[in-house]
């Protein structure tokens, strides 16, 4: 993940704008906010994730000597600007929703307040980090809700779009309620529990399937999940049952079997009957193979005797919605609220806060989007995270973030917890914010009269 440390991990236009800001002396304080314009049709909510990586990035932001030399040699930038870049670091403030917070369209989950060139430069990487992890965490949260407490393991690294995506999706899925991951480095980095089984190649490398099972069980006596669908699923289950007694005499218990192909529900029923009939009711059944929240929901609804799911490609690529309509937009510069009015992409001006109301049972009842200086009923969702370029407190452990996400999911109204689309709780825009938008429009029109 060394690319994440480079200040050149940005779009060219960020640097060309920076030189223009530098040349024009435009270095006063700006506020930008990251938000999602509209929820995808397949999502009833989103889960904020990636803020930890944004803070890491901002604290470490520097141009290396090699990067400065390369920029100077590109011929696009003058020497005074290059010398100024050599001194650049992030000195601004960050306010953000805690990771794991459920949010809706138009609600900012992170605000950057800093000198304009700094706040502009970081746009690309902030969108890159927040969009991906929020997308993956939101998909994983739907899997969590569909599984109704059954084991969920991230299997996605091998088809992730690069190493960083594989690692960050492991983190995002665990944050959103998965029980663990198969990605070993994620276990080292963040303490995420590791789960693993075996590949079909292990079975194929042996001349005898039962011998393969025994070899693996004796090598991994405390963690052995046997892959039983290489040849014939039910036949393999019977072979494994016949082996279980011999292994038990040596103190080795078979923990689980994995089915990775075919009609998973029907195979699970047949395998469960075989295992139970052979006196192996504690051997769990784990399934994988192109799963997502829809497949998990259907298997659970069908009453399939499945104890756990390995979910990979469709989760960490968010296959049904592989991008979010998100933005990082200027809301204020030099004390003046700013607003974009592009067709279909208009923004609400000024620095904002989101207040969340709950009903008497603690269930989410609705949100209010209003100006930062307003005070309103409910819980203020954005909180200070960084001041003058430094964190205000140590980052919470991932276990705490996971607990926060679980509490947020538990507080969703029943309709929003379902996989099917539902009408979201109302996000109300305050009268003061609407009035400010009108005032900004009038000011803009007065300062830029139409010409013909």
TrEMBL record:
Taxonomic source organism: Aromatoleum toluvorans
Answer whether the UniProt record assigns the keyword Glycosyltransferase to this protein: yes
- Single GO MF descriptor: glycosyltransferase activity
User: The Nicotinate phosphoribosyltransferase N-terminal domain covers which part of the protein?
Assistant: 8-130
Protein modification: Transiently phosphorylated on a His residue during the reaction cycle. Phosphorylation strongly increases the affinity for substrates and increases the rate of nicotinate D-ribonucleotide production. Dephosphorylation regenerates the low-affinity form of the enzyme, leading to product release.
Entry-linked CDD domains = NAPRTase_A
EC number(s) of the enzyme?
6.3.4.21
The protein depicted here goes by the name Nicotinate phosphoribosyltransferase
Q: Which family does it belong to?
A: Belongs to the NAPRTase family.
